[in-house]
């Protein structure tokens, strides 16, 4: 019993350990965007952006560092500037929404914006698949910066947008109203430690050096919401709700607070679904599945109760009336097993010579016994006796009994048949000598 | 534990759900009600602690025949016992895999019959009884492993003893030997029995003239075969006895022949001992003349081949230790060069010096069929080679003064008895 338990537990435990170690290593290796060093133009840490800032200055681009989204947007509003946002997740969406109104001569570069942020600010870019780690690929597009950079580690998050898609959709460029929007899923090209790999540095510099100024938003903590609602033209209504929810869009990479607060507020419709938490009945008011309303409540109730009935069936069938009975089986070996094995061995080794020798020896003994010769007689006497008895030519008999080894299986089969025929000719139906004695 | 009836009740009650003002409360109330009913049913089921089991019936059966073992279910509780009972035996006991349904009134008993048709020789144990006590509504049951306790039972399956059919013929030959049946002709025994008066028809050569002269009557000598000799059957239960000859292991063929020989020898007035040995002594039977056969059958029934090399030194040592007087030792084994050449041949002279030894081996007729030249030449060469090795072992044994009996399965017991009778007739036991 204990062994069986161990047999299950050991492989599962090893698998769980591997998964845990892998997960922890991965988490440790990932740079933390809320770290003050992360892609900061002043930081020389491996995850910093000092090298990139220096390279940009060497290109003759003015690097203007700010720590407030509002300031950054203000600076970029003047035109002929690149607004570089390394951590879009921490900027308040109300500010980010204002990016739409930037002039056409401004380029916005967002690094790995969370899907939810893109959704909330209604950017013309949507996140699709995500990779476990960044991958270096060919640009595969007509964007000049990418073409010049060549292969770069730019494929981490894939995006969907109208416009150019480079690096297998890891980098997209599109127009957001007037402004030029560049979204890249990987932070590797901008980091001090990874800039030297492939065409990373060329890509980063290329993306940021198209205008005379780079406005570098060096912000790593969640921003306070604006004091009074800022109103970008057009969309007023949907943002009411989200502006009450400061934690919702804040942290990069998922915040459980958002989901909970959503559930807490959605009082309508959850009154009846108390008591059965297993079917995930309480829908958040904003993401309510339309299927839910398509059927009456009793329909879902019947489904739940039928599921309970199925559970009872499982419980009922899971209890057996006594376990199966085991029994040690007696050791038995097939009678001719060794003979069959030896025969197969001869065949596989193509042992035609030894096989023919054995068959000839048996035939000699048989014919000698039939002719009442001593088994130890020399071959001459036996061959001539057989020749005399059967009337076959002496040479034929000699060749059959003492000839060369057969070369092919067909010859061997023919030899066996010939020997058998010879024995039949020599005497009465062949009888094994020991059998004869017994009777 | 819940039953399918509970599930059905739960499923059926869903049809009322559209009528409830709040269907979700309906689910809660209905489920709770059904579960409460099941709980009540469990409470009303007869307690397992108050159920006792007992067994009665056959203890031994000959292989191929059918035995019946009865399982008694006693209900000591004040509630009615509604139960499903499964009586589990080892698969080779041939018990039908059916579940008994039984209803036992309070303080009453019921008997369940299990019909067993064993498929193998040996001891076939009953493994366990599983009992499931249902409540009166059939919504729930009580079941617990090991309760009630399973009464132990063991059915001994005796060897089939097919060679019984040879016994009348061999006994008849024995009588002829004793001169008891055919009055004409003198008994061909070698031991002087008695003098009796001449009757017409007696062989005149058997008249004892000296005794006739002493009395004024014509007396003839009668002879009888030697009596009170000892026969020792030694069964090799090592690895070579596991080899299948025909449908069953060689050991079964040896047991069959040993039983026939023992039956014949005890009728001839000889004393039969039996040993079964591989690396240890597995079974011994000694002495006794009249109740011998049942004892032998009982001792041989549980023997099984074990995959070990037989220790022939132990065999010879045991035989020499047990048999002080000269005896006929019949060694049931296989003519295999590996087992006999290295194990038996070195110690055989010690045995052959004291006793007369027969090495009896049953062989597979398949081998001779394979050795025939038609068919695969490789296979027939392999078979010829194996037969040649067997012949070499045989001649090596014969050189040591041992009689070798090597016969196919169907005539093996008969040949063995013939060899015994021949030795007896020649007075060489």
Describe the structure.
The complex is a heterodimer of chains A (439) and B (429). With 439 residues, chain A is an alpha/beta fold. Among the domains of chain A are: 50-223, 3-Layer(aba) Sandwich (Rossmann fold), CATH 3.40.50; 340-438, no CATH class. In chain A, 43% of the residues lie in helices and 13% in strands. Chain A is built from 17 helices and nine strands. In chain A, the strands form two sheets. In chain A, strands 1-9-2-3-8-7-6 form a seven-stranded mixed beta sheet, sandwiched between helices. In chain A, strands 4-5 form a two-stranded antiparallel ribbon. Chain A is elongated and about 125 Å long. Chain B is α/β, with parallel strands linked by helices. Chain B has three domains: 48-158, Immunoglobulin-like; 193-224, no CATH class; 230-425, Rossmann fold (3-Layer(aba) Sandwich), CATH 3.40.50. In chain B, a hairpin with a 2-residue loop joins strand 13 and strand 14 (248-249). In chain B, helix 10 (365-371) crosses helix 11 (377-399). The radius of gyration of chain B is 33 Å and the shape is elongated. The model of chain B is unreliable at 181-187 (pLDDT under 50). Classes of the chains: A alpha/beta (439), B alpha/beta (429). At the A-B interface, helix 11, helix 12, helix 13, helix 16 and helix 17 of A face helix 1, helix 2, strand 4, strand 7 and strand 13 of B.
Give a brief rundown of this model:
Chain B: Residues 195-366 form the DUF58 domain. The complex is a heterodimer of chains A (439) and B (429). Chain A has 17 helices and nine strands.
CATH superfamily of the largest domain in chain B: von Willebrand factor, type A domain
Structural class of chain B: alpha/beta
The CATH architecture of the domain at 50-223 in chain A would be 3-Layer(aba) Sandwich
What's the CATH topology label of the domain at 50-223 in chain A? Answer: Rossmann fold
- Strand portion of chain A: 5-15%
Give me the number of helical elements of chain A. 17
Based on DSSP secondary structure assignment, what is the total number of beta strands of chain A?
A: 9
The low-confidence parts of chain A are 231-285, 428-439
Report the top-level CATH class of the domain at 50-223 in chain A. Alpha Beta
Rg of chain A, Å, rounded: 44 Å
The first-to-last residue Cα distance of chain A is 59 Å
Can you tell me the CATH topology of the largest domain in chain B? Answer: Rossmann fold
- The 3D shape of chain A can be described as elongated
Structural class of chain A: alpha/beta
State the share of residues found in helices of chain A, binned by percent. Answer: 40-55%
| Radius of gyration of chain B using CA atoms only | 33 Å
Keywords (chain A): Signal
Protein name (chain A): DUF4350 domain-containing protein
InterPro entries (chain B): DUF58 (IPR002881)
Protein name (chain B): Lipoprotein
């Amino acid at each position: 019993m204990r062994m069986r338990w161990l047999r299950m537990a050991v492989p599962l435990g090893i698998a769980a350990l591997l998964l845990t170690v892998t997960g922890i290593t991965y988490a440790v290796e990932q740079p933390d965007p809320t770290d003050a060093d992360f892609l900061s133009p002043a930081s020389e840490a491996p995850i910093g952006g000092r090298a990139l800032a220096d390279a940009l200055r060497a290109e003759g681009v003015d690097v203007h560092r700010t720590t407030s989204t509002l300031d950054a947007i203000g600076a970029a509003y003047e035109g002929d500037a690149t607004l570089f946002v390394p951590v879009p997740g921490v900027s308040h969406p109300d500010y980010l929404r204002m990016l739409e109104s930037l002039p056409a001569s401004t380029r916005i570069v967002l690094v790995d914006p969370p899907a939810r942020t893109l959704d909330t600010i209604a950017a013309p870019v949507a996140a699709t698949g995500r990779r476990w780690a960044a991958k270096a690929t060919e640009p595969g597009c007509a964007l000049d910066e990418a073409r010049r950079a060549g292969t770069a580690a730019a494929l981490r998050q894939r995006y969907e947008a109208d416009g150019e898609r480079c690096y297998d959709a890891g980098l997209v460029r599109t127009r957001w109203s007037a402004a030029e929007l560049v979204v890249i899923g990987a932070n590797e090209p901008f980091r001090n430690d990874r800039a030297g790999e492939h065409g990373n540095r060329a890509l980063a510099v290329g993306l940021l050096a198209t205008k005379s100024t780079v406005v570098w938003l060096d912000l790593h903590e969640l921003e306070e919401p604006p004091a009074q609602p800022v109103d970008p033209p057009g969309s007023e209504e949907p943002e009411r709700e989200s502006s009450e929810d400061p934690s919702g869009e804040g942290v990069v990479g998922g915040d459980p607070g958002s989901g909970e607060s959503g559930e807490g507020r959605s009082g309508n419709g959850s009154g009846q679904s108390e008591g059965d938490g297993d079917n995930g009945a309480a829908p958040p008011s904003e993401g309510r599945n339309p299927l839910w309303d398509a059927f009456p409540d009793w329909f879902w109730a019947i489904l739940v109760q039928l599921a309970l009935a199925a559970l009872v069936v499982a419980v009922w069938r899971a209890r057996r009336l006594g376990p199966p009975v085991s029994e040690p089986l007696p050791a038995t070996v097939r009678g001719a097993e060794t003979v069959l094995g030896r025969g197969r061995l001869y065949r596989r080794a193509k042992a035609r010579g030894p096989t023919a020798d054995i068959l000839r020896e048996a035939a000699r003994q048989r014919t000698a016994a039939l002719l009442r010769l001593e088994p130890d007689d020399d071959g001459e006497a036996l061959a001539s006796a057989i020749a005399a008895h059967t009337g076959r030519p002496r040479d034929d008999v000699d060749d059959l009994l003492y000839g060369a080894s057969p070369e092919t299986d067909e010859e061997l089969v023919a030899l066996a048949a010939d020997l058998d025929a010879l024995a039949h000719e020599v005497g009465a139906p062949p009888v094994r000598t020991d059998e004869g004695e017994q009777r | 534990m819940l039953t399918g009836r509970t599930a059905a009740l739960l499923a059926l009650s869903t049809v009322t759900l559209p009528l409830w003002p709040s269907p979700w409360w309906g689910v809660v109330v209905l489920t709770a009600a059904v579960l409460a009913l099941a709980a009540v049913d469990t409470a009303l089921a007869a307690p397992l602690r108050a159920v006792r089991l007992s067994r009665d019936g056959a203890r031994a059966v000959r292989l191929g025949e059918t035995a019946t073992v009865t399982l008694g279910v006693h209900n000591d509780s004040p509630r009615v016992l509604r139960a499903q009972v499964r009586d589990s035996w080892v698969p080779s006991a041939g018990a039908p895999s059916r579940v008994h349904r039984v209803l036992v009134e309070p303080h009453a008993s019921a008997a369940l019959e299990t019909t067993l048709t064993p498929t193998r020789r040996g001891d076939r144990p009953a493994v366990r009884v599983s009992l499931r006590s249902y409540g009166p509504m059939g919504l729930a049951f009580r079941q617990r492993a090991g309760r009630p306790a399973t009464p132990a039972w063991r059915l001994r399956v005796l060897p089939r003893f097919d060679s019984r059919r040879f016994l009348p013929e061999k006994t008849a030959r024995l009588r002829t030997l004793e001169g008891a049946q055919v009055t004409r002709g003198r008994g061909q025994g070698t031991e002087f029995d008695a003098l009796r008066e001449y009757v017409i028809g007696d062989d005149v050569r058997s008249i004892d003239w000296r005794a006739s002269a002493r009395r004024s009557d014509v007396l003839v000598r009668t002879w009888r075969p030697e009596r009170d000799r000892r026969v020792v059957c030694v069964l090799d239960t090592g690895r070579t006895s596991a080899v299948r000859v025909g449908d069953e292991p060689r050991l079964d063929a040896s047991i069959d022949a040993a039983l026939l020989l023992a039956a014949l020898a005890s009728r001839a007035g000889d004393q039969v001992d039996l040993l079964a040995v591989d690396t240890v002594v597995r079974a011994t039977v000694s002495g006794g003349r009249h109740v011998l056969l049942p004892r032998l059958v009982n001792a041989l029934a549980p023997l099984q081949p074990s995959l070990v090399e037989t220790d022939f030194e132990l065999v010879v040592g045991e035989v020499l230790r047990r048999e002080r007087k000269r005896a006929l030792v019949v060694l049931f084994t296989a003519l295999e060069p590996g087992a006999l050449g290295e194990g038996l041949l070195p110690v055989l002279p010690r045995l052959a010096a004291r006793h007369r030894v027969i090495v009896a081996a049953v062989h597979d007729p398949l081998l001779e069929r394979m050795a025939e030249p038609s068919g695969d030449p490789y296979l027939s060469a392999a078979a010829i080679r194996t037969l040649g090795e067997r012949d070499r072992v045989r001649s090596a044994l014969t050189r040591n003064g041992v009689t070798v009996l090597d016969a196919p399965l169907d005539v093996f017991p008969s040949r063995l008895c013939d060899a015994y009778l021949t030795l007896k007739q020649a007075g060489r036991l």
